[in-house]
């Protein structure tokens, strides 16, 4: 075991042993998501962002919008191990849910984007996702649809408002409204003790007691937020000895954050995913290899805490995780402006 | 020119010459669409149908829902010449709009389905569209998602409600709500004389005077409805001599209804498409070869009425056709129930 591993194990064990302390730190999700100073969330941006998010004309052959892989009302995901992009190409990683992405300090599984704004640009220009040559090419499409211009002006003032940055800002502003602060768990934490069943409350205690909260902490259950000397990334899997899941689910085939930094210390380091709405987002893990939530719980207990859970405990924890779901705030389907001429081949 | 052609030309000319009579027959769209006796439209069916219509899990690899090619708030189409199905396979014909499909007496370009219920089953089991082995396989997926069962029960009573026929009925019921009875044209016909501009009113007169109404008649502008001795199909293109568009846009490569009946008289016979929301549905014609509405008007005038229109007339008619658009009734985005286990590869 490397020094790095030893440190992480010590951290995990330390936290596990102080599980009771974590149980006191249950946080409800805020009613609004934080926004950067240069992109305050406004209704006009959200309205435009919702349209753009659902517009497949932003993809090379017009078959994919952001919603294709992050279906808003389908849990923010596509329920596939890895997504399928233009030309039937498969991506390498499981699509993370868009719900509560606003509470992540960094975006993508490997944290390669620092903000939702930067994230929004990624898939558009990724050749195996939406497949545009660059984001400007998508903006050129939007510019050729006159019905979009009034929405950009309303959101960003007058002048040359149809720009790459404004497109990304609008999509990010919309995504900041995709939060689920009224789950049974939130209602429970806020005082409605009937919001969770007895089994769910047992699962909640066990979730903390066995140490899941070491990484899945905070209101979004997505781990420590950035602070001096504190990384938002965690190693997965942490325990390799006697861990049958690594080979079974190919957990180490992907190098994780190492692919971004080429720093050896970042091998198999991953952003901690939110557990909110996890019941909606099968299959699980960065490669989508695990089909059920109960198996995902077993894999995590073994791989991160070196624990083998009995079926009852797994059932209790899954019941608790179910309480982290929705409801998804109702929203109207966006009406997309027509193009005056066919722009897709 | 064959006897069949001569008869059709005589019909077209006779109608063109009596254009004034057609001008008196402008009909507004009814506020509700007709429904078959065995599938009355109910809120519960519409709610379920909207969910199923938007659920990509009904396709083989989970990438396509009905909405992928018939985007409801994108004009009911995909704005592509021909649609792209599972595995990046191209269909042979342009996706017709789902808006006001309820007013068609027959479904698909070649009329091979007699009802929306039958139509709904087609693309699910079409190997180059949604690609399921059969519709039952899609129903099996739905059955494996427990959250759907209460919606089927609410719509269809208790017992074994999750069936192929009920799935089709629910989707059809939803589609019967996708109608646009409040376009500027409808408001004009109902007495609001300010609803159309002077140019649109000129275009409306010319549309009738030159004979477009011969086929594009009735409230949905989709031609004569079925009656004894009356066909809902029309030949396209009708005039071949000196028609440059046939080669340019490959108008006769597809045999149309002949492919269904193998009857020579059905060669190049097509269901008359609705013109409602036509400004949203570029590109045009069964093969999507024509990119703009103004060019589509020129092609139709030459191919069906042997007329070459000047630019002013084309502009007026396009302005009138713009008045046949929307608004699309607002609707909430449907929340899709989660699957308890990953069901997609």
Question: Explain this structure to me?
Answer:
2 copies of one chain form a homodimer. Chain A is mainly alpha-helical. The first copy, chain A, has 2 domains: 3-30 and 180-322, Cytochrome Bc1 Complex, Chain D, domain 2 (Orthogonal Bundle), CATH 1.10.760.10; 43-175, Cytochrome c-like domain (Cytochrome Bc1 Complex, Chain D, domain 2), CATH 1.10.760. The first copy, chain A, contains 14 helices and 2 strands; from the N terminus they run ααααααααααβααβαα. Chain A has helices spanning 3-17, 19-23, 43-53, 66-69, 116-125, 135-143, 149-156, 164-175, 184-189, 198-209, 245-248, 258-261, 293-305, 311-322, and strands at residues 233-235, 269-271. In chain A, strands 1-2 form a two-stranded antiparallel sheet. In chain A, helix 5 (116-125) crosses helix 8 (164-175) and helix 13 (293-305) crosses helix 14 (311-322). The longest helix of chain A is centred in the first third of the chain and has 15 residues, at 3-17. The relative contact order of chain A is 0.17. Mean pLDDT of chain A is 92; it is low at 1-24.
Give a summary of the structure in a few sentences.
Helices cover 36% and strands 2% of the residues of chain A.
What's the layout of helices and strands?
Two copies of one chain form a homodimer.
Chain A: H1 3-17, H2 19-23, H3 43-53, H4 66-69, H5 116-125, H6 135-143, H7 149-156, H8 164-175, H9 184-189, H10 198-209, E1 233-235, H11 245-248, H12 258-261, E2 269-271, H13 293-305, H14 311-322
- What is the global morphology of chain A? globular
Q: Largest interface: which pair?
A: A-B, 49 and 48 residues
For the record, the count of structural domains of chain A works out to 2
Top-tier CATH class of the largest domain in chain A: Mainly Alpha
For the record, give the distance between the C-alpha atoms at the N and C termini of chain A, rounded to a whole number.
54 Å
| Helicity range of chain A | 25-40%
Poorly predicted runs of chain A are: 1-24
- The quaternary structure here is homodimer
Number of strands of chain A: 2
Major pleated sheet of chain A: 2 strands, antiparallel
Structural class category of chain A: mainly alpha
* Individual helix count of chain A: 14
Biggest sheet, spatial arrangement of strands of chain A: 1-2
> What is the average per-residue confidence, as pLDDT of chain A, rounded to a whole number?
92
Strand content of chain A: under 5%
Order of helices and strands of chain A: HHHHHHHHHHEHHEHH
CATH fold category name of the largest domain in chain A: Cytochrome Bc1 Complex, Chain D, domain 2
Based on the structure given, which CATH architecture of the largest domain in chain A is correct?
Answer: Orthogonal Bundle
